[in-house]
Amino acid sequence: MGFKTANQAWRLRHTTGRTPRFATPQALWQAATDYFEWVDNNPWMKTEQRIRANTSLQREQTCLIDLPLIRPYTLSGLCAYWRVGQSYWRKFKESKRDDESFQWAINRIEDVIYSHKFEGAVLGYFNANIITRELGLQNRQRRDDQLQQPPQSVLVRREQSNGDTVLETEYPQFTDHLFSTN
To answer: Which one Pfam family would you cite for this protein (predicted)?
Structure first.
């Protein structure tokens, strides 16, 4: 079943292509706040076994309790909530690079996600090691540079009163405090 000959239905369309998901910065921010509210209202549940004292029978009773755990805001979670891939976010962010109003919304979304993770890690709600790695906050020291340095050592000589050397030993640098004359 095809189109009729000389079909003019295309003239009824006012725009070409698909309409954008976020036409305005306000729509983008509203979609992000919907995600933040959803995360706050749907915590992870952790089941723990607790012992409860039963006063009438003077015995202990075990029961299972569901404890809510805070769920962190993540960019991947935001994209999953919107049903798009993370590449969509990167391309959207790049395409709106010159639009200041969209940049405000994009930066605010990323700042909220960053601060939520950071504050949650500081307060102990999230694993600090994982969050610092994800946020790029770990101390990046190169062990290769440290290994290539020649080992520094201290030479200790014990001499007799006539000037003959009785003992000559090299110690690593970290043992300097053992030979101080304090």
So the answer is: GP3_package
DSSP letter string, 125-160: SS-HHHHHHHHT-S----HHHHHHSPPPEEEEEEE-
Q: How deeply is 114 buried, as exposed, middle or buried, from its count of CB atoms within 10 A (0-12, 13-18, 19+)?
A: middle
Give the residue ranges of the chain where pLDDT is below 50. 175-176
Contacts of 108 (CB under 8 A, 6+ apart): 29
In the numeric block, which tokens belong to residue 122? 């500081």
Q: Decide: pTM greater than 0.70.
A: no
51: left (phi over 0), alpha (psi -120 to 50) or beta: beta
What digits encode the pLDDT tens for the residues 76-121?
999 999 999 999 999 988 988 888 888 999 999 999 998 888 888 8
CA 99, 105, 107, 109: dihedral to nearest 10 degrees? Answer: -150
The residues pairing with 52 across neighbouring beta strands, listed in sequence order, are 61
